[in-house]
Each structure stands twice: as C-alpha cells, then as structure tokens.
Amino acid sequence: MKLSVPGRVTATAVVATVSLLTGGSIAGAAPAGQPAVAAAPDIPVANVKAHLTQLQSIATANGGNRAHGRTGYKASLDYVKAKLDAAGFTTTTQQFTSSGRTGYNLVADWPGGDTNQVIMSGSHLDSVTAGAGINDNGSGSAAVLETALAVSRAGYHPTKHLRFAWWGAEELGMVGSKYYVNSLSTANRSRISGYLNFDMIGSPNPGYFVYDDDPAIEKTFKAYYAGLGVPTEIETEGDGRSDHAPFKNAGVPVGGLFSGADYVKTAAQAAKWGGTSGLAFDRCYHASCDTAANIDDTALDRNSDAVAYAVWELSR
C-alpha cells in the first residue's frame, strides 16, 4: 500500500501486445459447451507461501527490496510471468516511466470467456525501498498468482473473461495501475465488469476488512466470510491508497480485501479476531522487518481462498 503522499509520474510508455492489453479479443477460446466449474477450489496456503519465499529470496539477492525501478522488482515480475506463461496464460508486459526509472505492469489473460465482461483481479508487486515487502504486497501478489494458477489447474472456463494483473510503482502513488486505466479506451474500460484488489492480506496481527465499494462484490466477499463464521468490518484505512482507486475513478465496479496496516487493533477487534489489541495490524508496515516472517498464516490462507471464491462466483 502506498504512502499517503503520491509520487510523480512521467507519461512515457511502451506497450507490448497493445490489442490484448487494452481489452481486445483473446485467442484460444474455450471449446463450445465447456461446463463451468461449480465451486472454487481451496487454495493451498503452502503454495502461496512458496511464492512469498521466492519473493523474499529475490529481494535478498537484490539489495533487500523489490522497489520500482530496481532489479528486485523486475526479477519479481519475471518470476510471476514465467509461472503464468507455463500455465497457459497470455501475458503482456506494459512499460512506463516514473521518477526517472522504468516500471512495469504485468497483465495475464485466461483464454476464453466473454471479453465484453471481464473480471479482473490485481495487486501491486512493488515494495518500498526499505525492505522486501512480503506482506505489502507480496501477500496479495502471491494469492492472486496462485488463484490464477488454480484457474489453469482446474481448466476453468467461465462465462466471463478472466484477467489478472500485477502493478508497478504503487508505492509512488498507484502509478502503474493509473497508467493501465488511462491506456484503456472508454469502450474497453466499460468491458471490465469488476476489478478486485488485494493489497496486504497476511498481516501478522490481522483484521478482516472488506471494501464497501461495489455492492455485488462486497456481498460476495461477505458471503465467503459468513460461511467461515468470521466477522468482517468495512475497510477504511486504505481508501484511495491502493490500485482499486484508478479503476473506481474511471467508473469500474471495484472491491477487495485487506488485513490492516499501521492502524492499531482495538480491544473489540481483538475480541472477535484474536491477536493483540493496542498494536498495529502490521508493525512492520513499510519497514525492513516486512519479511517472510511477517505473515499470519491463517489470515493468508483465508484471504487466498476468498480471492478464488470471488473470482469463481463473479465470473460464472
């Protein structure tokens, strides 16, 4: 999640495979009559954590971070892209410049589905320069990646078209996602039926927060948590501070999940969710201690399953 003060962006960009990235037709449609999978699969938290281990290793090998314009960010993007390419996605890298450094977005389309009805899930892949950014936002990035891989494993062919994205330079003011949204024509923006955002979903002293933007998306996430018997609260800490904001400002229905950053957990919240009152949801927010040790496995597991649940439910 970005700092409250936005960074600056220089609007120079190079776009690869423009027709795909901006919402054009996708090759390899599903066979006629292919049935949709009835229910979302369980997302193995061990798989999600394995991605986090890789992101930690990438940061460690590249100056301790995965920040915009640094080698650790590009290595992170290459890792995610390789997984998606091997799983049968059509991937597109979008390049932009911000603060004098080159940044990248990665967009992955699953073949098939109605491209006039796109369900898009995304997360920012960059960290701050202070650390590896494993909760912020390796957690969301890994969960979105593993959900995409689960789509491939299931051979899922929903009615709507599935698109996944990993954004660059979020920490400078949602630069990558803003560039992507601004690159879309009005018609292609209107083809996105919903954008789901996942920024910090494994906080070590977690809360369970649901965005209260689009009512249908909000209801979907709340239904998942109701099925677990886990109470939720409306997300307010990150309003306007993550990659859903550019989509929302462009009129796209948005929603998402959040497990908390530097706000302090109250006694009432600790009573219903566990954890420690009087401490931040993530005491390592934007700090060097946001490492692979800075994750609550239960929150990561529940939220990763919620990502898949929403993708399946909203794309039928």
Count of extended strands: 9
Instruction: Estimate what percentage of residues fall within beta strands.
Output: 15-25%
The largest pleated sheet is described as: 9 strands, mixed
Shape: globular
| Strand-pairing-aware structural class | alpha/beta
Number of helices: 10
List low-pLDDT spans.
Answer: 4-37
Instruction: Please write the string of helix (H) and strand (E) elements.
Output: EHHHEEEHEHHEEHEHEHH
Radius of gyration: 18 Å
Neighbour order of strands in the largest sheet: 1-2-3-5-4-6-9-7-8
Alpha-carbon distance between the two ends: 30 Å
Mean pLDDT metric: 91
| Percent helix | 25-40%
Detailed description of the structure:
- With 316 residues, this protein is of the alpha/beta class.
- Helices cover 37% and strands 19% of the residues.
- Strand 2 (90-98) and strand 3 (101-109) form a beta hairpin.
- It is globular, with a radius of gyration of 18 Å.
- Mean pLDDT is 91; it is low at 4-37.
